[in-house]
Design goal:
about 350 residues; mainly alpha; 15 helices
């Protein structure tokens, strides 16, 4: 899990509104119902602070969120029983932030404890508990315990599918996550089968150029590649590119699948197609006055590599010099990216010298 996946509000696939089960939304629970009490003023204060935490999360400032949430959890541990819904909510969110900011081991203890208590007080089918389990599964992956993450995610999907039905959008989102876990666990065939079913289901429910479908297809291509089915990955990415080209998706988001397809073309030896696609990526970034973007620079480097492979070393050198000129406008002389490009240029120049020597 990364920093942009901290808040439920940030993930339209995983919101409590999607559920048709349980009325126990964790944001609506009364802390007086289960152990411990807060007076009205204290409850208002803590919820105000929690809203501030979530605003920090939404603005991608997890460090401030973490600092304030630590304070909330400490206060809750002193004033509320461990079964209190508010305390569980705060501890759960703290676990998510810890996992996303590089402290998954501590997050693991928090989330496992929250789920242990929640299983008893909320029940296996409670929407909040299912959400907690999703986050614990991702934390297991962060700590390298992939098998535990897969097992937990499989159990969540089974419960959701039984309660909500296979057509529910939350079930599709959970299956998508599980498919990606299969990929991490080198179970590519299972991941492909599951994600293909997700793509098919989503395509029935929304337009095929919907972001959910596009994202699932891009991930499916990634699993195909992991399974060494490069031609299948190309087939899927070509469809994605076609869909994106007829929509108005933002430039830098739209170009990512194009760049991935260019890489797959290179891997498959389709150099002409790779050159054409990378030239288009560069042209669109130039038109948007965005040639300094990493994706544009990567496309220029890709073009240099393609021309080098085809024996046009002078063209490769020209392109790499262009990359260096762009990088020097924004990076200091010792920046790793600039040094890497210079090293690449040096190797290509050496290759050109060897070629010239043979000709002479």
């Amino acid at each position: 899990m990364n920093r942009n996946e901290l808040a439920e509000e940030k993930s339209p696939d995983h919101t409590t509104q999607d559920y048709a089960i349980s009325s126990g939304n964790e944001d609506d629970d009364n802390p007086h119902e289960d152990g411990g009490q807060l007076d009205n003023q204290s409850q208002d204060d803590t919820e105000t602070k929690y809203k501030l935490v979530m605003s920090y999360v939404d603005s991608d400032d997890p460090d401030k969120a973490l600092l304030l949430l630590e304070e909330l959890v400490t206060t809750a541990s002193k004033t509320l029983d461990q079964t209190n819904p508010l305390r569980l909510k705060y501890e759960h969110q703290l676990g998510k932030i810890l996992s996303a900011t590089g402290n998954p081991q501590r997050a693991l203890g928090l989330l496992e404890n929250v789920i242990s208590i929640g299983t008893t007080t909320l029940g296996e089918e409670h929407l909040d508990l299912l959400r907690y389990k999703h986050d614990l599964a991702n934390t297991y992956l962060s700590t390298g315990n992939i098998h535990a993450g897969v097992q937990l995610s499989e159990s969540v999907v089974a419960i959701e599918e039984r309660l909500l039905g296979q057509d529910h959008p939350y079930v599709s989102a959970s299956k998508h996550e599980l498919a990606m876990m299969y990929q991490v666990n080198d179970e590519h065939k299972r991941g492909i089968e599951l994600l293909e079913s997700v793509v098919a289901k989503l395509t029935e429910q929304v337009s095929e150029d919907h972001p959910k479908v596009i994202n699932a297809m891009v991930d499916l291509a990634g699993i195909y590649r992991g399974d060494r089915q490069n031609r299948q990955a190309i087939r899927v990415l070509e469809k994605v590119v076609t869909l994106l080209d007829r929509t108005s998706h933002e430039l830098y988001t739209r170009m990512e699948p194009h760049a991935e397809l260019a890489d797959r073309y290179l891997e498959d030896g389709q150099i002409a197609q790779m050159i054409a696609l990378n030239e288009r990526i560069v042209a669109e970034h130039e038109a948007g006055l965005a040639e300094e973007r990493p994706r544009c620079l990567a496309a220029l480097k890709g073009l240099a590599e393609a021309h080098r492979i085809q024996g046009r070393v002078d063209k490769a050198v020209e392109l790499l010099n262009r990359v260096i000129a762009i990088q020097k406008r924004t990076l200091h002389d010792e920046h790793p990216a600039l040094l890497k490009t210079r090293s690449l240029l040096s190797r290509v120049n050496d290759e050109r010298g060897e070629t010239d020597g043979k000709q002479n």
